[in-house]
Amino acid sequence: MMSASATIATANRASVSEQSEEQKMVKKVAVSSFLGNFIEWFDYASYSYFATTIALVFFPSGNHTVAMLQTFGVFALSFVLRPIGALFWGNFGDKKGRKGALAISIMFMSGASFLIGCLPSYAAIGIFAPALLLLLRMVQGFSASGEYAGAATFLGEYAPTSKRGIYCSLIPASTAIGLLAGSTLATLMTANMNSSAMVGWGWRVPFLLA
After folding, report:
1. How far apart are the first and last CA of the chain?
2. Residue 19 pLDDT more than 70?
3. What is the pLDDT of residues 35-56, one digit of tens each?
4. Dihedral over Cα of 191, 192, 194, 195: its sign
């Protein structure tokens, strides 16, 4: 009897330990998925809210209207690679695992955001400045489709059946919070910095933070 009781107790402890580890894994998945998608939309918000400054930094200053159109043209072209990225990351996740696909896509997104914050201006390197900006935005567009759908799929697979809805809701929630954080930061910086500081280094802050 003692031996049977000890066996049952050991099995119960093992079951509790497995459940605890599974809960920890789900929480890690939720946090990483939330942060990855947050970074994506924080970056998109930052680019759009700082578009006027980006136009001054990366394009010729002769015609500001043309510079603004070019700035938003770069923004729009980044979406061209989203369908291609969706096919790539979806296939990658099926074959190599969701975790790897999500982790790599997050690194691509955050790395490209950081490099945008480090880019020299048009005054420093000429046409290479907008060309590099476009390249990095294309990398972001390619990786973004792996983040949103990948994070949602990843969470859906790991979340407990009884809580799948609330866990998957973190993805659209992180989208809204990322946009809110980007707009809030842009508002605070615009209110507290003069135009020369904003053009000189201020616009880089949100991209380096991402």
Report:
1. 60
2. no
3. 878 887 888 888 888 998 999 9
4. negative
